[in-house]
Amino acid sequence: MKKICLIAFLFISTNTFASYILIPMDAESQKNHLKAYGITYWVLEKDLKVKWLLNYRGGSFLLPDAEEIQRECQIRGVSFEVISNAKAESILEEISSPSQNMEAVVLEKAPKIAVYTPKGKQPWDDAVTMVLTYAEIPYETIYDEEVLNDGLLLFDWLHLHHEDFTGQYGKFYRAYRTAAWYMAEKREAEDLATRLGYDKVSLEKLDVALKIRDYVIGGGFMFAMCSATDSFDIALAAEGVDICEPMFDGDGSDPNYQNKIDYTKTFAFTDFTLEQSPMVYEFSSIDMTQKRKIFKTTDYFTLMDFSAKWDPIPTMLCQNHTALVKGFMGQTTAYTRDEIKSNVLVMGENKTNGEAKYIHGIKGKGFFTFYGGHDPEDYTHRVGDPKTELDLHSTSPGYRLILNNVLFPAARKKKQKT
User: Fold this and answer.
1) Max Cα separation, the chain?
2) Is the distance from CB of 236 to CB of 210 less than 8 angstroms?
3) Per-residue confidence at 145, pLDDT binned at 50, 70, 90?
4) What was the pLDDT predicted at 415?
5) Superfamily of domain 2-107
6) Which fold has domain 113-410?
7) Which residue in 187, 193, 169 sits closest to 248, CA to CA?
8) What pTM was computed for the model?
9) Which residues form the signal peptide (predicted)?
10) Dist CA 343 CA 354 (whole Å)
11) What tens digit of pLDDT does each residue of 309-326 get?
């Protein structure tokens, strides 16, 4: 009888022994949401699989239990819970219930990340490089020469730094044309274009945009913020059309160029009107910055609610501990709702303003996400402003959206239903 009791005890102990680490992502339990993504990426780098528990406690992560992982969580200040195998099974059973808008998605491998950025830019010049650095997620920087030489084929995920793909140097002409940094960046761009065999920066940037387009069509994932979003689409739509004034490229623009724009070539936007004046800090009617009628204290956008089981992709990209996220400005702050293509999914919007903040689409075999604004924790970021200290914003919902996109390529893909 004693032997039978001992065997039974050992059996029960084995099944209740801690065998998983749960990283909760709700507002109450997690003290550093951003570094939690870094821990998840670090585990994937070790060829271990992770379950992303969509809509369960803010989009929590279920990791295999190991002393090394627990120690790394403690070092990075990430909240975690050690749970038994039985508890993990209970959670997964709850998630699998048809009555629950939840899903467990398997993350299989750490995606290789590239950031398209000019040489010499500091990590704090861009929200994505800043949060990747803070979360301790490794990335490589590439620029025009690498892109034109098919260097993108080495990467699973690409972020576009705040680039102007139209060759108009960010439309900074009116305010900064005599500034030393503006003249230096213009000269560097012209020298690079010449070295790569182009007569104009606009022509070189167009070929870069076309290479990025082909990367996405071939199965890559592209994430862009602020001016890199609309300027990228404008460059594609203006292929073969000169939309640059003489101060940008040395010769006049094509007559009546607005009527020559081909909206079928874009990823996300359609029927937009280009801003033709070089003295206006704006690319087109896509951006809502100058059309906004909202105060900072009431500037929020709402994340859309998707079916985790039927639409896991947008559900992944919207994981957060709140559905209401603080707005923030940029050269391209948000997108005019009526100028977004019907096949592009709006994932975050401000209905009061009639604007979309966060959108996603499919192009060929790949995916793209556009996110308006410059820095989720710097409302009106301006040239020369100090960098954001993410230690003060370690639970930022706005920055979480960026990191959702970083992990997305790691997921075992399921076909989207709608």
Assistant:
1) 96
2) yes
3) very high
4) 52
5) UreE, C-terminal domain (3.30.70.790)
6) Rossmann fold (3.40.50)
7) 169
8) 0.93
9) 1-18
10) 18
11) 999 999 999 999 999 999
Instruction: Give the distance, in angstroms, between the CA of residue 296 and the centroid of all CA atoms in the same chain.
Output: 23
Compute CA distances 184 → 125, 203, 268, whole Å: 17, 20, 32
Q: 279 near 174, Cβ under 8 Å? A: yes
- Residue 323 and residue 18: Cα distance in Å, rounded? 32
Q: Which residues of 297-310 are buried (b: 16+ CB within 10 A; e: fewer)?
A: eebbbbbbebebbe
Q: What is the DSSP letter of 100?
A: S
Which of 274, 270, 283, 335 is closest to 164 using CA atoms?
283
Enumerate the domain spans of the chain: 2-107, 113-410
More confident residue, 387 or 251: 251
Rg (CA), the chain: 23
Please report which helix (H) or strand (E) contains residue 51, including its range.
Answer: strand 50-54
Quick one: DSSP state of residue 332? S
Q: How far is C-alpha 46 from the geometric centre of its chain's CA atoms?
A: 24
Residue 275, both tokens: 């801003």
Q: Which residues partner with 340 through β-bridges?
A: 269
Q: Is 29 in contact with 73 (CB distance < 8 Å)?
A: no
Dihedral Cα 251, 255, 260, 265, nearest 10 deg: 10
pLDDT (tens digit per residue) in 181-216: 899 999 999 999 999 999 999 999 999 999 999 999
140-142 and 157-160: which strand pairing? unpaired
Q: To the nearest 5 percent, what fractions of the chain are helix, strand and coil?
A: 40, 20, 40
d(CA 378, CA 38): 22
